[in-house]
């Protein structure tokens, strides 16, 4: 796509009338040394935000605040697939780097760019067909939109617990959530997606059409092949659930071990996260579990009885309620913060030496103004009904996804943050021998060595072939993207 062909498509011609004041300085065409933003603005049904726009900084900000200074030159707030297409073609015509943005929750700030941010967050409609339970989502829908649309029908998909996270990023990289053991990963419920490619074509991808790209859209991660403008999911019915949050402060190694034993033999109806946290200003470590059981309080009590026999929790909340009320108990908003998360898949159980290492490292945490957490999310169940090569999400057949999260704030001096980063690296490296060299592509980690192996394993070669056929010029790229 050249500048001339962009103009010939007509997409670039219809500007001039009714441009907002902050854009009028460049409304008469290309400003020397800067790309013709007015031409792009005129081609959009949505709006083009430039740095002078009052909303610009807020929309540009990523979830991970350490990357907030990477500002784009402009943000195309797309209202339609045509807007996405025009933005993709315009960027190439004027050699402006592009990036897709949905929820902005990339852990590594990979939906920031020094060029054009193609923001689909206004394409967030979710419609459910009550007869079939099929849900159609715009490419910019967030978990919060899924919650609101599914609740009236008593149906769900496997969603995340942070309401602000974008479904695009979530599903394209796999998607873990408390429903995954009973119903599979988010990407396992995906039936179809539409994607705008670098050459401007918009393709339907499903098992029947462009099935290789559909395979890749279930686990490769966002930002690799094009910009997804819509997702179709098969939802499932949800009834009453028992939700729980329990915490312990004593005998942590024994409690950890007992919880792990319970979790590894639990029914698929259990969704659970275990965390051990060192918090600024708190005297010791706290171990907690959070999750849901598609079952009764009595069934949960029987699962937890062996753990209670080891040590009674210092705090506990257990309640039974309808599914979507339960999600209000479990969910978080997902507001921006300073954070670095490093993951490792666990193929088996964690040995006593692994548990001792986790506790020892957290006790040696250098400390920030916020917290450091080691956690695992229980896997297995429906995730394992597919083979690792059946979708691009290669990490099936694991018992857990573990991660270490380091959080700090703007008042932490740089030297302290650096000391903490060294600690995080050492801890992450030490855990490899107890876990695996595989990491979750949705917990994308700019510090990960050999990341293509870590995210894709044996699926990498096929992903590269697909990349070569759908994005041969490598238009969609970021520091850890799939190479051509
Ligand atoms: C607070 C928090 C909670 C989380 N909880 C969970 C969880 O419960 N389960 C889980 O699996 N993961 C979770 N994650 C990880 C999350 O899935 C990833 O960070 C995901 O990539 C975020 O998607 P996004 O659309 O919000 O982010 P963005 O930053 O907008 O996008 C992420 C990547 O996808 C690309 N992209 C964005 N939109 C599109 C599109 N429409 N088409 C193609 N590419 C696109 C971007 O360019 C970028 O490379 C969480 C992350 C955070 C920060």
TrEMBL record:
FAD-binding PCMH-type domain boundaries: 68-238
UniProt keyword ATP-binding, yes or no: no
Gene3D superfamilies: 3.30.465.10, 3.40.462.20
Keyword Secreted found: no
Residues annotated as signal peptide: 1-16
Key words of the record: FAD, Flavoprotein, Oxidoreductase, Signal
Cofactor: FAD
Superkingdom of origin: Bacteria
Family affiliation: Belongs to the oxygen-dependent FAD-linked oxidoreductase family.
Protein name: FAD-binding protein
Naturally occurring in which organism (per UniProt): Lysobacter brunescens
């Amino acid at each position: 796509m050249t500048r001339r062909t962009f103009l010939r498509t007509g997409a670039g011609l219809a500007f001039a009338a009714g441009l907002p004041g902050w854009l009028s300085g460049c409304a008469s065409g290309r400003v020397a040394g800067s790309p013709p933003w007015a031409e792009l603005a005129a081609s959009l049904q949505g709006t083009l935000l430039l740095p002078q726009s009052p909303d610009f900084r807020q929309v540009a900000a990523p979830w991970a605040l350490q990357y907030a200074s990477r500002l784009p030159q402009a943000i195309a707030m797309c209202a339609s697939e045509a807007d996405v297409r025009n933005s993709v073609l315009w960027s190439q015509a004027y050699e402006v780097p592009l990036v897709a943005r949905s929820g902005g929750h990339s852990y590594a700030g990979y939906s920031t760019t020094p060029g054009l941010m193609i923001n689909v967050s206004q394409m967030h409609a979710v419609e459910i067909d009550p007869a079939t339970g099929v849900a159609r989502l715009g490419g910019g829908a967030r978990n919060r939109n899924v919650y609101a649309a599914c609740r009236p029908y008593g149906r769900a998909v496997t969603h995340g617990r942070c309401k602000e996270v974008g479904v695009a990023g979530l599903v394209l990289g796999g998607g873990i959530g408390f429903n995954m053991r009973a119903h599979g990963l988010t990407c396992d419920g995906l039936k179809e997606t539409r994607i705008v490619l670098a050459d401007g074509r918009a393709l339907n991808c499903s098992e029947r059409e462009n099935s290789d790209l559909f395979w890749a859209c279930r686990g490769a991660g966002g930002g690799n092949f094009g910009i997804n403008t819509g997702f179709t999911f098969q939802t499932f019915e949800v009834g009453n659930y028992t939700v729980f949050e329990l915490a312990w402060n004593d005998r942590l190694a024994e409690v950890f071990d007992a919880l792990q034993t319970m979790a590894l033999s639990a029914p698929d109806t259990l969704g659970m996260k275990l965390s051990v946290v060192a918090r600024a200003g708190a005297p010791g470590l706290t171990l907690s579990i959070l999750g849901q059981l598609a079952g009764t309080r009595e069934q949960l009590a029987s699962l937890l009885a062996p753990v209670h026999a080891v040590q009674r929790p210092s705090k506990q909340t257990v309640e039974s309620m309808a599914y979507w009320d339960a999600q209000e108990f479990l969910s978080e908003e997902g507001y921006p913060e300073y954070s670095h998360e490093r993951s490792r898949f666990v193929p088996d159980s964690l040995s006593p030496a692994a548990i001792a290492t986790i506790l020892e490292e957290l006790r040696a945490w250098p400390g920030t103004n916020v917290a450091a957490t080691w956690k695992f999310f229980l896997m297995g169940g429906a995730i394992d009904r597919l083979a690792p090569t059946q979708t691009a999400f290669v990490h099936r057949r694991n018992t857990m996804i573990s991660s270490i999260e380091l959080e700090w704030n703007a008042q932490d001096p740089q030297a302290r943050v650096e000391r903490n980063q060294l600690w995080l690296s050492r801890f992450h490296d030490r855990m490899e021998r107890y876990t695996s060299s595989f990491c979750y592509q949705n917990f994308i980690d700019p510090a990960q060595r050999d990341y293509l192996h870590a995210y894709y394993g044996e699926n990498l070669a096929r992903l590269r072939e697909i990349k070569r056929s759908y994005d041969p010029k490598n238009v969609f790229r970021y520091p850890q993207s799939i190479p051509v």
